[in-house]
Amino acid sequence: MGKIALFLPKEEMLYQAHNLLQDYDLEVEEVKITNPGMVLDEAKKVAEYGVSIIITRGMQASLLKQYTSIPIVEITMTAQEMALLVVKAKRIIGKEIPRIGLVGFRNMFNDMSHFNELYEVDFRSYFVDNSDEIPGLVQRAVNEQCDLVIGGESVLKITEQLQVKSLYLSSTEESLHQALEMAKRMDYAMSVEKRSVAQLETLIDYSDNGIIQIDGNGIIVSSNAMMEGLIQKQEEEITGKLIYDIFPEIKKEAMLEILAAGKDYSFQAERNNTQLFTMVAPIVVDGSVDGAIVTCHRMRRPQMERTEQETNADRKKYAPVMAQFSDIIQYSEVMQECVQMAKLFAYSEQPVVLRGEPGTERRIIAESIHNSSQRKTGPFLDIPCEGLDDTEQWNVIFGENGAVQQAQGGTLLLQDADQLSFPNQYRLYQLIRFHVYYGAKMGTLRKRDVRVIATVSQPLHELVKSGKMRKDLFYLLSGLELEIPPLRERKEDLRYKITQAFQKSCDHYSHYHILTEGAKIVLQRYSWPGNLFQIESFMDRLVLTAKKRVFDEVAIVSLLKNLYPDETGETMGEISENSIYAQLLQTGKKEETYTALVHSEESDKIQETLRLFCGNREKTAEALGISKVTLWRRMKKYGIEV
Fold this sequence. Notes:
The chain is of the alpha/beta class. The longest helix is centred in the N-terminal third of the chain and has 33 residues, at 173-205.
């Protein structure tokens, strides 16, 4: 129970308080008569004694609220108490309908809007927000010909000087009784909150997870001991810093969504060779976000039955898996969401299914999941299932010295797993579900710790519906199924890949070519059913067989129709008709079109070559076959800056 102090303006209220307190089970530290000039000093004194609630009224309550952080319970005049004062004032004035003024702090009173009708008076209220307003409002009451003014000590001093009738704002035990009841409820609520906070602090301090609290601006407020151990920094070192400084993995855009929209966020981090699964959850108070909680926990998995010699042997035997999530083209929002989900899947030991069209990032995402998991030091085997019959699949995957045998402690990627025969699907089910598979000899079971990642081209439920997949395997695989969107649904990624593949082919063959704007639009509007691989193959053919330096939309459409006659059809016709170059020609301004096209091509080529040589003007000029002065002039002409 918290300690309570009562600061009262009059001695009569002191007696009322002593009478009432006998009926209350409250720990009262002090009951004292105070005035506005001394109340702040008295509050500081009782705060040192551990007082957690102060009961007072009027100006004293306003001062304490403004200058201290101690919870204040205000003594509010009840309607019944005010009615007694109005009746008394009416007797003093002696008029049939007297005009009575009330000057005081708004926080002291309840609703008195119907006093005129109830008591046949002209009752006027003059509420103040601070003590400086009292003299002006008393004067206003006098100017408005109030017969009597009701107020506290400050009001009565002024009315005495003005020789106006006045009445002290005295109260009965009723208002003090209400204040004590309020203090009792507040004390209980504060006690409950203190217990909750203490329990929460204990829970946080002894939690197995690292925890950081941040405010609404992303600034670290506090952290627990476990977090200090995980990031190897003391609480004093990180308090007051932005969360980005401690966890650069958190994107600023994501943090804005957390603090503005109240969205959750999760990511993977690594500190001191330890994989951490990190979540950021917003703190929502009354519908508004008031900071967030960042929690981290170590990713653990059961110890594998592998010796150090076996691990080292595997490292020498298999080429290292180099792909990381950062290697994936992800300028589009849809691909960023896909990669974020894949990062979460890396924490799990369950099988993952990657669904996507040919040429999408199925393989690189599988490698990235492996490299971000606890198995990253183990082997990674990639097995194609398509084109193999039942026996061949069994030999390659489950046979003596097969992929399962070699992937112990690592990851097995099964490409086109929907092509597995039913017997091999059952063997895969046993491997995933029970970590066992049958060896070459009848009746011999082998135990293996292997994580499976499978790629498919159709949704799993469609494979089951069409009779291409066992139901038991479907239920086992369907938990972590991830769809990889094709490039045609990722315009930003497609634009980047086209530029990257074109530049790579130019560099490889030491050719210097330019794509016109019309050519770029054709390339971006084509559907690319083969995705990444198709673009790379197309660009290689385009550059290798080039007979001119500039590729326009006509050249692109021609090669697309030549290479993929069954896939272009009407699409190429629409692209050709709607190309930028064709539209410019239709305006009849052929000369302006040609000049603009040449200038655009020249500007693009200069910028591409500058990027190639990291802004080195001397090497750029040499590659373009012009002098440094000419390069400088053309850069100035086209507004190109390094």
